[in-house]
Amino acid sequence: MPHSASPYLADGPRVGIRHFTYADGDEFTARVRESKDLHHPWLFPPATPEAYTAYAGRLIEDSTKAGFLVCEQEHGAIAGFVNINNIVHGGFQCGALGYGAFAHAAGRGLMREGLDLVVGYAFGPMRLHRLEINAQPGNAASIGLARACGFRLEGFSPKMIHIDGEWRDHERWALTAEMRSPGRPASG
After folding, report:
1. Is the torsion defined by CA of 157, 158, 162, 163 positive or negative?
2. For residue 186, is it within any domain?
3. 185: in domain
4. In the list 51, 68, 81, 104, which could disulfide-bond 17, CB 3.0-4.6 Å?
5. DSSP class of residue 108?
6. Number of structural domains, the chain?
């Protein structure tokens, strides 16, 4: 029986990760609208087709960014997303992570699995050495995900990022390739 290639860059027991495409706009924006209460006041992903096209375009075309959709293995539904922004190569080999779960997937451990896959892909095929997460101190879910995936708290930055009309404080979390837990794959 022929074996079909996986549509994913990396996959685990319940999710796989793949890059954003323009064709994902309808599902992505529908999931964003369903998840408005979950995301507010922490996150404002694109909720219209026009906004999605611009957002996805930056992730697809800008070499300093990489966007990953976390998709459920069972039926391919988009469970969330993880973006690596501000990618710098050379002596730095670093990127800043941003992520969000969609309401139907929240609390099911899918984003932990997805973030682990993205970290493995970043430290493997992307050849990055360090990943950083900046999370607002009150965002317990985001901080919990960073901690669960092995990131360490490195500091606090007052009024670091402009979100929802205000400069917001953030905790800085980081992970290096050497810190990756034994047994976790370097790539999917």
Report:
1. positive
2. no
3. no
4. 68
5. T
6. 1
Give the range of the structural domain holding residue 152, as residue numbers without chain letter: 10-179
How far, in Å, CA of 93 to CA of 96, rounded?
Answer: 11
Give the separation between CA 128 and CA 93, rounded to whole angstroms: 5
Count of CB atoms within 10 A of residue 81's CB?
A: 27
In a domain? residue 188: no
pLDDT one-digit tens code per residue, 120-159: 999 999 999 999 999 999 999 999 999 999 999 999 999 9
> Does 4 map to a domain?
no
pLDDT (tens digit per residue) in 155-172: 999 999 998 899 999 999
CA distance 42 to 38: 9
CA 119, CA 177: separation in Å to the nearest integer? 9
**pLDDT at residue number 181:** 58
